[in-house]
């Protein structure tokens, strides 16, 4: 049977690479990525994968792709994914995170009659520091960074294109995602990738100190990357997710100090911590109510302990 074709923007990134790997089991996959943070090594060598080097903020790049392919699903993940980078360079971030989304939506709406779903990667950052917890999809929206503002504007555009042009869509607000291949090299990387890097450097006998911003009492909902992938595919395939926004998270909450202690136990290694000032734009507590996505069939398959074990197993092999 002929495979349906799926577009994954940002497919060479951390989450994108995992999504592509999974989609290749059933689909022909086209990845559009400018490799600004993504890497070709995040993608498998596969006969049903086409990689296109291009920029979502360049309309011409998008139009060419939509002229050449008829898509059954679009997963739009390409973004400047760092809150801190968005504070340093709001305009550059905006060109990718906002303008880029509109370019993709404009092209996708021309295929609205055959496109089965447009799925957008939004973020828990849209909730900002408004104190009500846990965060439900109907909680107050109060983004406090350029990243969060653009994510909220972009998800609103996605849902508006459903109402205005009949584009079938869903938006997913990811909480803190972690897992294999998350890049620890930038100071803006996810905290668990930096922790993993520190632990592995210590295991190899090197000096490594973990920079703790604030006192470690910040609470987060860490979700294993395979659960994010399962959630994204569910949103793409479900009829009930049409023109709706969903949290994707684990539903567990842990302080950073708890996570560090759990990871030290799993790895059998004690970390030295260097305390730093809390960073501008950091939200003290963020965790999700996931009942909305659970109602359409989502189940997390990794507790934090299971996810950390898998991540540690993978990354300690990658370091040898
Ligand atoms: N990792 C998380 O915890 C998290 C949480 C909430 C939301 N998200 C969202 O999930 C998506 C994927 O994040 P990630 O963690 O995999 O980050 P990532 O940086 O690994 O992936 C982003 C990908 O987009 C590509 N990209 C960036 N700008 C582009 C442009 N102008 N044109 C084409 N490609 C471009 C990058 O090269 C990279 O491959 C992003 O939209 C991010 O905002 C991530």
UniProtKB/TrEMBL annotation:
Q: Which InterPro entries does this one have?
A: Epimerase_deHydtase, NAD(P)-bd_dom_sf
Q: What is the lineage of its organism?
A: Bacteria, Bacillati, Bacillota, Bacilli, Bacillales
Q: Which domain of life is it from?
A: Bacteria
Q: Which residues form the NAD-dependent epimerase/dehydratase domain?
A: 6-249
Species in which this protein is naturally found? Listeria newyorkensis
By what name is this protein known? NAD-dependent epimerase/dehydratase family protein
* Alphabetical list of Pfam families matching this protein: Epimerase
The family this protein is said to belong to:
Belongs to the NAD(P)-dependent epimerase/dehydratase family.
